[in-house]
Amino acid sequence: MGKSLHYIISPTCLGLSTTIFVFPLLLAVLSLRGYVTAYNTSNVCLLFLVGFFGWAAQIALSKALQLEKAARLAAVNFDTVLLLLIDVFYFGESISVIEVIGIALIMLTVLGIATLKILHVVN
Questions:
Q1: Among 10, 12, 87, 108, which residue is least crowded by beta carbons within 10 Å?
Q2: Which long-range CB contacts under 8 A does 53-56 form with residues at least 24 apart?
Q3: Residue 87: how many other CB atoms lie within 10 Å
Q4: 68 phi/psi in degrees, rounded to 5
Q5: Contacts of residue 122, Cβ cutoff 8 Å, sequence gap at least 6
Q6: What is the pLDDT of residues 26-74, one digit of tens each?
Q7: How many whole angstroms separate alpha carbon 55 and alpha carbon 44?
């Protein structure tokens, strides 16, 4: 994605293609297997809000990638770790040792890169 492409185009095209092609297929498969049994207003609204805020986050990331080098932005990408911690503490999910090792590797790598950039060892 270059600087000549508007930052809203890429996330919008991805969102529209997912909505048009993947979502109906996924909904049909889940309905056939009995996972989706009822559609109430609150579930539909929450699903819409998740999609909207995901789209907004992708737009912000696209704009940030146009304004800054990707290596500098990668150092602040903790979304996977944050979502896993929300699963554990909010939803009460259990995590395995492999997931804890993965979290530790991500955190140590990001902190190491950020430290090296602060010390001007790497650009």
A1: 108
A2: 55/11, 55/12, 55/15
A3: 14
A4: -135, 160
A5: 113, 116
A6: 777 777 777 666 667 777 777 778 778 878 877 887 777 777 666 555 5
A7: 16
| pLDDT at 89 (0 to 100) | 86
Which of 2-18 are b and which e, b meaning 16 or more Cβ less than 10 Å from the residue's Cβ? eeeeebeebbeeebeee
Q: Say whether pTM exceeds 0.70.
A: no
Mean pLDDT confidence for 78-90: 76
| 122 in Cβ contact with 113 (< 8 Å) | yes
> In this structure, what token pair is assigned to residue 79?
């979304």
Q: Which amino acid type is present at position 46?
A: L
